[in-house]
Amino acid sequence: MSTKISPQPPIAALKPGLPKVVIATTAMLSFISFWRAAAIVLNDLGSSAFYAGAIAEQAIGKAAPWFILAIMLFAYAVRSMYIESCSMFVRGGVYRVVKEAMGSTLAKFSVSALMFDYILTGPISGVSAGQYLTGFLNELFGRLHVNLTLPINSTSAVFAIAVTIYFWWENIKGIPESSGKALRIMYVTTVMVVAMIAWCILTVWVQGAHLPPFPTSHNLTFAPEALGWLRFSSLPHTIALIGILVGLGHSVLAMSGEETLAQVYREVEHPKLPNLEKAGLVIFIYSFVFTAGVSFFASMIIPDAIRPQYFGNLISGLSMNFYGPYTLKLGFQGFVVLVGVLMLAGAVNTAIVGSNGVLNRVSEDGILPHWFRRPHPRFGTSYRMLNLVVGLQLLTIILSRGDIFVLGEAYAFGVMWSFSMKGLAVLVLRYKQPGKRDFRVPLNFSVGSVEIPVGLGLITVTLFALSIMNLFTKQVATIAGVAFTIIFFAVFEISEKITLKHGGKHTELDMFNLESDEELTPAALAVRPGNTLVMIRNSNALYNLAAVLDRINPRQQDVVVLHLRVIGRAGSGGNELSQEDLFSVNEQELFTRALSLAEKRGKCIHLAVAPATEKWEGILRAAQGLQSSTIALGLSSWRAVPDEARMAGLAWESLPAPRPQLTLEIYSPTGQEHVFYLGPHAPRLTNKEIDLLHGIWLELSNEVAPEELHHHDVVHIALEELRRNITDGRRQEIIEALRKHLSDIRKRPSASA
User: Fold this and answer.
1) In Å, how far from its chain's centre is CA 210?
2) Which domains are assigned to the chain?
3) What is the pLDDT, as a whole number, of residue 513?
4) Do 291 and 251 contact (CB within 8 A), yes or no?
5) Per-residue pLDDT for 504 more than 60?
């Protein structure tokens, strides 16, 4: 989405004191399909299939696949909670929802914890990709008798750094390019997944296999480091529920990426919520089949004795134990490594996108200085936040030295606590804001007038149980996560106080770049001829923009939203106005509200501010310069609708040739629409007028036979006769008849011309 501030060049030519064109741009907001949205999330959620099963089995033993399966099913329930929050807030990430429900302090805690896992998600994915690649290269070197062995961890760290820097640059350029690459990665991954599952089924059919042991107390073999501070207790072995929670807690790596769904929702195209639900279903099916399938098939096909040596690259180990010739298996392993590198690298991108979205929401609320959200001068993205996030990710990779298990052990503190706080917030909002929602988590019952959200309550309780259990069992995650959260929370608190001290406030305004240009044209605003020009002036009265967005198809017609700065003739002379004179905080607030309406509907708009000395002259010259086909206004506070249309018609007659044919739409807050046509146009006849014309045609057509009479012939004769009567002395009689007709129209419920 682009935003431009532009005066019309013809006005500037006629009144030389007016300022030249000033262009403002904000972060490019391009709406994406639900397939692209699903691809962005799956690059994180689906990528966990490459390492989640191995990390879980190392911690809890051979029953790990059952816990991965349970987590994938639970992830679908958590996703429904996110969809409900998005139905209430377009920018419905954890910060916005928790703040709305429980206040700013808990919101800052939640987002501080979430940032810890966003910082870890990129490194763990990049390092895992490096381990797949390094393992394959070492095996290939051995096959070719090359005396070279790459160090697994160091090589993986170097690769992760390179991938992180690459996607940092892609995100600096903007999300459209990043989402396109994510979708292409998923195309390739799908081919690999289908081939892998087919080969797994063939292998099991030929060689036979057994399901992994069920997660009973006898089959759970916790590694000492998996129990953390509970390793000296017998509770995980004697109380089944605690043992299950420990196992699930070490499997939650398979559920990462849900918060990214809320961050990407802002960019999902129209129809917004149905497309989000489709994306959620695609994500569930894909991640369930891929992540749970890999974990089960690896346990069934790879022999127990050699499976630990493939914990760093589990799918590679799976491919090398398929039924078939070695050369073919090695070739497929190469394909797995290629896909793994692509998908895990895509997860690095997803982590950057998600963390950038979270920090933007925080900054919008005045928690971080607006300096952080200053758009990139060329690409319009929030590059300073991207620099901060990527810098922390690179530091994490260096400190971990490429050890996937260190990163895996530290993971999941923040994501579970942010999930828990999000679930509690959505639950609180059921009672704090009990109005109608477009989507609700299922399993809701009512006792009298009180709603009992059983489904949402069970999700929230389960999330808190897992979060609390992880506090005791994941020592590295708890220590590092608590420290990171406290530091980030302190930074947010101090930054907020400094921002308020320097006059900042919680306004949630979007940021814009300003630059100079010369003309207001379709090329300048990147719109197509035939666009709709929507006039806005009050941030609390954008009902005309809402009406246009509700009916328009952005694939067929662009929407330009214009705020006209009417300048007195005295102000139009002398010194030119500066950019700041044209674009004040009022315009910033107006544009932010307009962008919010567009985001909610998933439709693009192009914003502009233009100076003019007279209202209708400025509007019509803007429409002429932009080659618009329609102008949409709200009601005037001091001029009746017919008078407004008459003023528009008179101003149209003063336009320089060639004058465009324009449709004028004036909306009321209730949604009533008044339509007028500027310039020569075919009249819009009422049903009564059409019946009258048709009746006259029927009556006269037989009289002129065998000549063929058309309806337009009747109109032509009637108009010629009217013109003759006007010039032959009956002018006053005709004017009185017209006045009576117009008076009758005004007495009807609505009027159109």
Assistant:
1) 43
2) 9-26+512-678 (3.40.50.620), 34-495 (1.20.1740.10), 688-746 (no CATH)
3) 59
4) no
5) no
